[in-house]
Amino acid sequence: MLLSTAGVAHAGDKPLYQPAPAWVLPAPAVDTAKLDDAAPVLQIFDQQQRLEDGQVAIYFESAIRIASPQMLTQSGTLPLQWDPAKGDLIVHKLQILRKGERVDLLAKGTRFTVLQREQKLEQASLDGMLTATVALEGLRVGDVIDIAFSITRKDPVLGKEMMSVVPMVPAPTKLGFGRARVLWKDGVPLAWRDYSGGVVGSAERSKAEAKLIAGGTRELTLTLPTPKPAELPDDAPARYKPLPMVELSSYPDWAAISRGMAPYYRSEGAIPAGSPLAGEVARIAAASKDPRTRAALALRLVQDQVRYLFRGMDNGNYRPQAPVDTWSLRYGDCKAKTLLLVSLLRALDIEAEPALVSSGLGDLVESRLPSPGAFDHVIVRASIAGKTLWLDGTQGGSRAEDLDDVPPFKTALPIRAAGAGLEAMPMRPPARPAQQVSVTLDATAGIAFPQLYTIRIVYSGAMAEALRGARSQIDKDKLTAFLDPQISAVIGNHSSYDQKMEDDAASGTVTVSAAGVAYQDWNFDRGRFRETLDTTAASLNFAPNRARTAWKTIPATSGALSDVWVERRWQLPNGGTGFTLEGQQTLPAAVAGMQLARKVTLADGWLSLQDRTTTGLAEVPAAQIPAARAEVARVKANPLRLVAPADLPPRWAAVTAAKQGIRLKPIFEAYAKAIAATPDDPDGYTNRAWFYETLYEREGAIADLGKAIELAPTADTLVRRAQAYYALRQDDKALADVQAALELEPDSDGATGFLATLKRDRGQLDEARALIEARIDQGGEKKLGWQVQLADLLAEGGKVDDAVAVLDEAIAAAPRNAALLNLRCWVRATHNVAIPQALQDCTSAVELSSSAAAVLDSRAMVYFRMGKLDAAQTDLDAALQGNPEQSASLYMRGVIGKRTKAKDADAYLAAARMIEPRIDEQFGRYGIKP
């Protein structure tokens, strides 16, 4: 790491206490008589700098009003930091101001205490900075802390050159007095640039804009706060965004910086003959004559066998330590690692030189003043067979195949004795995706059931290094917590087990893997079941806002740098017979600054989908934004889908058939493994209970829900078990669970509605009605739903007129609500009253509804009451196409089948009873029996 600071003449490890220097202009005194709650918190923000003879002296005064008890707590101790190797900390003033009183703490003997520990050791940094602190005794809310101090800095590496940054305070921050002032000798070629209005378009300001004052000194004074920066779109490149600072530099050009740093990166004699480091050079040379292989081995040596530790002490923030010391100590910062790698490569006859970069603001470098402060990192620029390579010794896991990868620094300044200018670092997709995901999904049980999966994710680069470093601290639970969102991003909800993490030193990768149960997401559309596979298209997001005139010329970024390759392979049911694909089987190679690649195959019972998405490589020019948005919309509009065969049996038939075979056994075994992996996690039991519920196996669901309730009872889990008990006609147990749910969560909607149903069944209709009416009286957005529940409750309890009255009131408030019209149709039809009005309601509901299965079921009941069995059957068949497991439709299909002596009548009735065991009771209340 490089520190972007300049420096000064002498140094000390203890604060000095002196009056402000003569070149400082005092700020106006704080008027304590005017301090009230409306006064600015920052009464004084005054920074003055003097740049002279290679040194920078920074004077700062702040006066802060303690406006609240929270501020009092935060401001009770003042810390000041400085680098004793480069200069002094000089305290000029420390006062507490309150109305009618000025407490001079320095005059009373208050002094700062110097902390001796390194503040950034946990960030692998020894920067040599010292911190001086003082506790402010007697401080009160309403007081003003007025402190003035100077910090002097001089870096011998920079010689006579100077650079600095002056922080700007933009509006709407309120200041009592704000100023930024800079002094330098007339004739010194000091340039300055203000970035507070935006970096792009900020021009270098000439010395003529600073007035000449006594003593042949130039003075630049800026009033604070500066104007509020113009708003910019979030996706604007970083170089367009404002930086709240003024930058100063005496460097004439970038080449001067390049030349000035070159003496510190000489490699001559850096690897003495016979030294251990020379032995490493000989080992690499003997391993291969190929320059790329040698470069890869040298890079791996520096990355893997020298740990990172920044050393900024003793003027070390620009001066690298010697390669022999780095190898002996086995640690070094970016400077040390770069000089070591450059020395190794040159010893192996590979052209190499250091290059300065900015790790976070590379986009801004070419818009800034020439200054070492524009950089905070140094890497290696190598050349092999005419190709430029950018090698970073502080990264990890780089191998021969990664040599052509370009780190995302965008701009570099090569360090050369003859000097060099800025060089662009064109981005390109890495040779290996940073994340390679491979998933195999076993869907052979059928589209109606969960699928088994195995997943393998291979990480390289920075993520691999992070995992490798944290591996010893990642236990089983943390690995699961890390993996679960990674898996969900690829296959959605799942239950997992067999989580593993493996480190492959040879490839520089870390691999995590797991197995488990995943869930299919089929939708019935246009007469066929379809599953959308296109997570790539769905995740594309490009919607720049350039509506404002000032924004129309600003390009858009394509997001953060990311490179992910995902392969999903499905083993399809029935050998894949009848399965087809629709949607885009290819993707555009480039869209909206992103690079895409897709390969799809469907053959021999397997579907394979490979997608690679790389973002952050390029910007989209402003003129191309509309076309890019349109292209992204086109890609998202036609996602890749898997289409199931047209002759699939309904799900209830698939469930019946599966129960008679062994297709479901592997799925149950997988659920058992997931539970065994985390036996104290209730989710494992509730997940398997869900599977039992989808198979209409209530006993199994009750057992698993019971286990989950023992571990961590919730209202939802208790209601689920109550529903299973109710289906098995164990009403007392259902009632106990519902009451327990309400004890845990008194406002549970599900438990309240279910309790009303149980009371109705026990003949306590008035109590049941009161429960629901109490919720209706609460009003709000749930009122309509409770009105629907009340109408259904009353109708099932034999109060048909009351039910219709409730619906009449609700429909008057929402006359085009298809669900309300459908329910009124259903209530009348099932109780065989007002059939013409029921038909009218159902016809209107069909016209208004986007999902007509429930409405068609109701209209079928109307036709049944009218004796139109053919019309009823037609509507029931259409309803079952939309919802094949609609138990009422299945039941009535069986009823009509019995009356028309259809061969499939018993199958429909059996399906209805499997789905809803008490359906005969329900239809018995309507006077309908098979």
**CATH topology name of the largest domain:** Immunoglobulin-like
Whole-number radius of gyration?
37 Å
What is the oligomeric state here? single chain
Share of helix, binned: 25-40%
Distance between the termini: 82 Å
Please give the CATH architecture of the largest domain.
Sandwich
Q: What is the name of the CATH class of the largest domain?
A: Mainly Beta
Largest sheet: number of strands, sense, barrel closure: 9 strands, mixed
Give the uncertain stretches in residue-range form: 1-10, 118-125, 312-316
Number of strands: 38
Description of the structure:
By secondary structure, the protein is an alpha+beta fold. It has six domains: 16-234, Immunoglobulin-like, CATH 2.60.40.3140; 256-424, C8orf32 fold (Roll); 436-643, no CATH class; 649-712, Serine Threonine Protein Phosphatase 5, Tetratricopeptide repeat (Alpha Horseshoe), CATH 1.25.40; 739-815, Serine Threonine Protein Phosphatase 5, Tetratricopeptide repeat; 818-930, Tetratricopeptide repeat domain (Serine Threonine Protein Phosphatase 5, Tetratricopeptide repeat, Alpha Horseshoe), CATH 1.25.40. Strands 1, 2, 3, 5, 6, 10, 12, 14 and 15 form a nine-stranded mixed sheet that branches. Helix 14 packs antiparallel against helix 15.
